[in-house]
Amino acid sequence: MRIFLALILTALFSMTALSQTSLQVGSAAPVFESTALDGTDYDLNALKGKVVVLTFWSTHCAVCHSEIPKLNQFSERFDEKKVVFLAITMDQGDKVSSYLKTNPFNFHILPNSFGVVLQYADRNDQGNIDMAFPSYFLIDRNGQIEYRANGWDKTGKLDSEINRLLTKQ
To answer: I need a labelling partner for 70 at 20 to 30 A (CA). Which of 36, 54, 105, 133 fits?
Structure first.
């Protein structure tokens, strides 16, 4: 009986180890380095001192298509010296470039970013990736996650959270 109980407990602990809890508000944002579509290199550590908005999206995402014009208008209200807008996608650069010809997106686009998606994605109980598109992470000047959300029309909340962070010392 003890061996059976030990096996069950081992299996339960193993399943817990494989599953990942979601990144929580207040935790350190996973750092990454990536190259934007325009060739600019971005290092999250180097952006400390600025507020960073991460948007995870895809050219296949219908909700993302409808959100991009709102995000473009939204991002224009902030000073690039204080707030950096990064759009992270797993799509290949050539596919993104083609998409942007008819769907302009004013964020700094980071294509081929599967590794970054893995760092930010939740995991289900089986350890599978669970990432909704679009997803948003707001990172404060110290590299901490201050807000996270996914789905349609989050610009209002992002706006208020960015303004709160910009006035916070």
So the answer is: 36
Would you give the distance in Å from CA 103 to the centre of its chain?
20
Six token digits for residue 4:
């059976």
CA distances from 32 to 88, 115, 118, 160 (A): 11, 9, 11, 26
How would you class 148 by CB atoms within 10 Å of its CB: exposed for 0-12, middle for 13-18, buried for 19 or more? buried
Secondary element (H or E) of residue 123: strand 122-123
Report d(CA 167, CA 34) in Å as an integer.
Answer: 29
pTM of the model: 0.84
CA dihedral 50, 116, 158, 150 (to 10 degrees): -170
Q: Determine the angle formed by the axes of helices 155-167 and 62-75, rounding to 10 degrees.
A: 40
Q: Is the pLDDT of residue 14 over 50?
A: no
Q: Quick one: CA torsion of 20, 90, 156, 130, rounded to 10 degrees?
A: -30
For the stretch 95-125, pLDDT in tens is 999 999 999 999 999 999 999 999 999 888 8
Q: What is the pLDDT of residues 142-162, one digit of tens each?
A: 999 999 998 888 888 999 999
